[in-house]
Amino acid sequence: xxxPDVVVIGGGIAGASVAYExxxxxxxxxxxxxxxxxxxxxxxxxxxxxxxxxxxAVRALIAASDPRFAALPAELGTPPLLAxxxxxxxxxxxxxERALAAVLAERAGEPDAPVPLDPADAQRRCPAxxxxxxxxxxxxxxxxxxxxxxxxxxxxxxxRARGGQVRTGAAAAEISRxxxxxxxxxxxxxxxxDAAGAWADEVAARAGVPRIGLTPLRRTIAVxxxxxxRRLRVPGDARPPMVIEAAERFYFKAESDDLxxxxxxxxxxxPGDARPDDADVALALERVEAVTALGLRSVRxxxxxxxxxxxxxxxxxxxxxxxxxxxxxAGQGGSGIESAPALAVLAADVVxxxxxxxxxxxxxx
Length: 365
Known about the structure:
Layout: E1 6-9, H1 13-22, E2 28-32, E3 48-49, H2 56-76, E4 82-84, E5 87-91, H3 94-107, E6 115-117, H4 119-125, E7 136-140, E8 144-146, H5 148-161, E9 165-168, E10 175-178, E11 181-184, E12 187-189, E13 191-194, H6 200-206, E14 215-225, E15 242-245, E16 251-255, E17 258-262, E18 267-268, H7 278-292, E19 299-309, E20 316-318, E21 326-330, H8 340-352
Parallel strand pairs: 1-2, 1-13, 2-9, 5-15, 13-21
Antiparallel strand pairs: 3-8, 4-8, 5-7, 6-7, 10-11, 11-12, 14-17, 14-18, 14-19, 15-16, 16-17, 20-21
Helix pairs in contact: 1-5, 1-8, 2-5, 2-8
């Protein structure tokens, strides 16, 4: 397929999902530099669906993704993609209390917004929390874990079933304007979709297209051993809640008998193969231990991923007016997986000719 309708650059969740949606009525080639799609941020996510989280544009996309998450298993042949796991927002000091109050006030009345919760009730819902450590709390009851690998592989299978191609180990090294079309290596296409994650600005510059001002931010996550895993259990068969500090200085959630922890760091770094930072792992353990007293001392494994944002922390969807046919699907930050189903449908419509919402269009930057 040397003259596809669309070339999508990036084989993470953004590229795979928008390529699948476009393949319903377009010929599509997906290019991924790595040997395995989803090697970077998609494979290194905390894999959570948290409605009512993020800036307004992101919250809208997360909410709109809910019915797509419900429909995709039948459409793509995957197992259920969401497994309920509520989120507890906890405040343990004055800064946390102020942050929690601001979030509750800003999002009051929104569907699935976090609601206030008595601190004692928070401790009952999450026995891993040490008594007396929580000063204020909130609850997002409709949150869930996401089966990220099933989602990504489902989109890739669906793309191939619709006649699309997935090329791995295929860096889009040469991109240029060719009259009314674009040339990507040996491919001639009417549209390029830049869904290259942390590398989206690098891809744009390679094509002679202005950058959108993307900043990759490293986040380190670790899985810690829990000396007494019984502290992680909750009544019944429900999953223990994920706990997020209200000022987002740490979070944790149980993974079987272990605890996934992060200090929710956002360290600016160049795009690359992110590596965990030992100091961030140590600080995550310290902060989580301070509110749980679980005796966290050792780590089974750790990793890092890149969360990429533009200045207003909303995604970028669409083309610069002076560069038609080169479309960004980038800047999803830490919500790329939970917002992917809705964002992919919207982005595919924009590539087909729809006008992107002003809150997402590149011209706002």
